[in-house]
Amino acid sequence: MICINCGQSTQSLYVTYSSDHIKLTDCAKCGEVVDCYVEFDNILLFIDLLLLKREAYKHLVFNSLETELSKFEKNKEDKGSSSIAQRLRSWCSRNDRLNRLWIIILAFEIYLTWVLEEQRSHFLKTSLQDTSWTCMEDVLQKTSLEQYSFFSFYCFMDLMLFRYFTERLLLSHLQWGKEYKYAGDIISYTILLSYGAKIFPVLMLIWPYDSAASTFIIKGVANLYIIEALRMVTNKSYSHIFTLFVAVCILKSICIKALICLLVSGFNIGVSIELMKRDYQAASHKISSLLLSQ
Ligand SMILES: [Zn+2]
Fold first, then answer.
1. How many angstroms is it from 235 CA to the middle of ligand 1?
2. Other beta carbons less than 10 A from residue 65's beta carbon
3. d(CA 211, CA 115)
4. How many angstroms separate the Cα of 65 from the Cα of each of 142, 144, 169, 246, 288?
């Protein structure tokens, strides 16, 4: 656990007395209360997260997460070694709250991606008279169930690869988190909280928000949230985090493109390579068409 103001490690956030009265711990370094969010209502905490308050993020990803995971670690030690099924059950119960949040965000992401791809395809055909054929066009010709299955897989892999590459680059390349026991979980939770910006459309259900422009704006805002959240939690510079973010997006895009082509080709490697070439040619053609139409 840490002081959310200066980052100094601390043994406890508060002391409980016999009458259920608690006293918040003062930081030995800065003299402030180590974590005032212990007494905050969840609504206020949520608003502070939306406002990108550094202290709110630190309270959740360092102190709140460690409190929850340490309870689980204690139970695990009590139970001792277990089978694969028990380990899987343990993993599910350990990450229960985080997994539920990931599923909610994934559901919104599937819907938004599906809408965006349909609108993009329609726009290219009607406005740019673009007749080039890509893997995504193949997918959009399939049945609704097949399309939903495809976009579910696509968004799931997109999230998992983003999380994996961010974690790997931060931990091994930028050498962050050596002093934290749950460094991987901290990064994962930070991405999860900042990805919450993609839930904004829920607040706009009464307006016709699902246009390509608004979806692009929401994706842009969510990306800014992720960059800012990672910077606040890791204390790295903007240049480091921005470079990491661009690198992760490039790596993720290459992997996702390869996966889509493999899926569409029925896992035929030769056909997949041809599909990838066709997609890149189509992309360069679209860019040149857009530039000429300006
Ligand atoms: Zn402090």
1. 15
2. 20
3. 8
4. 42, 39, 22, 27, 48
Residue 62 Cα to ligand 1 midpoint, Å, equals 14
Q: What is the mean pLDDT of residues 57-82?
A: 78
Direct distance between the N- and C-terminal alpha carbons of the chain, in angstroms, rounded to an integer: 54
User: Residue 208 Cα, ligand 1 centroid: separation in angstroms?
Assistant: 46
State the distance from the centre of ligand 1 to the C-alpha of 2, rounded, in angstroms. Answer: 8
* DSSP letters spanning 142-181: S-HHHHHHHHHHHHHHHHHHHHHHHHHIIIIIS---TT-T
Q: How far is the CA of 29 from the centre of ligand 1 (A)?
A: 5
Q: Which of 1-5, 56-60, 261-265 has the lowest mean pLDDT?
A: 261-265
Read off the pLDDT of residues 124-160 as tens digits, 9 standing for 90 and up: 777 656 666 677 888 888 898 999 999 999 999 999 9
Backbone phi and psi for residue 26, each to the nearest 5 degrees, phi listed first: -95, 145
> Would you kindly state where each structural domain of the chain is located, as residue ranges?
1-94, 97-293
Task: Give the list of residues 6+ apart from residue 229 with CB closer than 8 angstroms, or none.
Answer: 52, 57, 190, 191, 193, 194
Cα–ligand 1 centroid distance for 70 (angstroms)? 22
Distance from the CA of 224 to the center of ligand 1, in angstroms?
27
Query: With 0-12 CB in 10 A as exposed, 13-18 as middle and 19+ as buried, what is 201?
Result: middle
Contact at 8 Å (CB) between 113 and 222?
no
Q: Are 142 and 150 in contact (CB under 8 A)?
A: yes
Residue 227 φ/ψ, nearest 5 degrees? -60, -45
User: What pTM did the predictor assign?
Assistant: 0.83
